[in-house]
Design a protein that fits this description.
Elements lengths: L7 E9 L4 E7 L4 E9 L4 H11 L13 E7 L2 E7 L4 E2 L10 H22 L11 E3 L5 E3 L6 H6 L13 H5 L9 H17 L10 H14 L12 H10 L10 H6 L1 H7 L5 H13 L1
Antiparallel strand pairs: 1-2, 2-3, 3-5, 4-5, 6-7, 7-8
Bound molecules: adenosine-5'-diphosphate.
Adenosine-5'-diphosphate binds next to strand 1, strand 3, strand 5 and strand 6.
């Protein structure tokens, strides 16, 4: 289906990102409530068309662990990206309600499945794994968004960070964080950091002082310091081991996605009934109030 602006009714604003607004919208022809992300870019029509072409690959990407793509179009210098509406928003909005270990396991499982799907089906490396790029819906489903499907779009969004939180693997910082030679191992590091933050509700490196200074100290810490971990008194040995494996300093020592999926921290809770919907509901009510 070819989405176009005239087919939508605006419902409400749901978030503001670095490059524009995300709105909840109603798509009249299909009667589907969607999330529409506006991305402001200084590009000409040719370049915008190239981005749309690259994004259209996503029409083939149906995976329960990836936020569904409904289509994109541009008006003047804005790209409008239409996707599945996820009621609870990004994972960081759920931090305040806490995250019991079984829920953390399911989140980790979904993230690994999503990342593996992108890699296997599209040879895509996410490159920006962090809690704000993981969305949760009211059923408690956890899905990835904002992955680098369009090289052109990626290059156009100078991905400067607003916060100090840095999810970059030590090898990325050491090599100057260019896109060259980026491998899935670097995404696995970012997964490990995201899981600690989700478990504890706190970014694991100390944030202190002026943002610019703090950022510098953190990057040095990521490269030279020991990897962060979760408290073994509060988390099971399987959980601690899973996170420690993702955060091995040497990229080649980190497990593959297939190995992570076999890890007891993930398999244990796959066999159990985990109330993801209950957790999502609680988070949703918390966001509303
Ligand atoms: P950023 O530029 O920081 O990545 P985004 O522009 O992607 O932020 O999104 C801003 C906020 O909008 C997110 O933090 C998230 O809570 C919300 N959001 C993004 N996409 C969706 C979606 N598909 N459904 C519901 N909420 C969303």
């Amino acid at each position: 289906y070819n989405v176009k602006m005239g087919d939508f009714d605006p419902l409400k604003e749901i978030g503001r990102g670095q490059f524009g607004v995300v709105r909840q919208v109603f798509h009249r022809p299909t009667k589907v409530v969607m999330a529409m992300k506006e991305i402001r870019l200084q590009l000409d029509e040719l370049q915008l068309n190239q981005i749309l072409m690259e994004l259209n690959v996503l029409h083939q990407a149906h995976c329960p662990y990836i936020v569904d793509f409904y289509g994109a179009f541009f008006i003047e210098s804005c790209v409008y990206y239409c996707m599945e509406y996820m009621e609870c928003g990004s994972l960081d909005r759920m931090f305040s309600i806490g995250c019991p270990e079984p829920v953390l396991s399911r989140i980790a499982y979904s993230m690994v499945r999503g990342l593996k799907f992108l890699k296997d089906q599209f040879s895509i490396i996410h490159r920006d794994v962090k809690p704000t790029n993981v969305l949760v819906n009211i059923k408690g489903e956890v899905k990835l968004c904002d992955f680098g499907v369009s090289g052109k779009l990626n290059a156009s969004l100078a991905r400067t960070r607003v916060g100090c939180e840095n999810y970059m693997a030590p090898e990325r910082i050491k090599e100057g964080a260019t896109d060259k030679g980026y491998t899935v191992q670097s995404d696995i590091w970012s997964l490990g950091i995201s899981l600690i933050e989700t478990a504890t509700g706190k970014y694991p490196y100390p944030l202190s002082g002026q943002p610019a200074h703090s950022m510098f100290v953190i990057m040095k810490d990521i490269v030279d310091g020991p990897s962060p971990s979760v408290d073994p008194a509060q988390y099971s040995p399987d959980c601690c081991d899973f996170i420690a494996a993702c955060l091995r300093k040497e990229p080649k020592d980190r497990p593959s996605y297939a190995e992570l999926l076999e890890h007891p921290f993930l398999t244990k809770y796959q066999a159990e009934d985990v109330d993801m919907a209950g957790w999502a509901q609680k988070g949703f009510e918390n966001i509303q109030s």
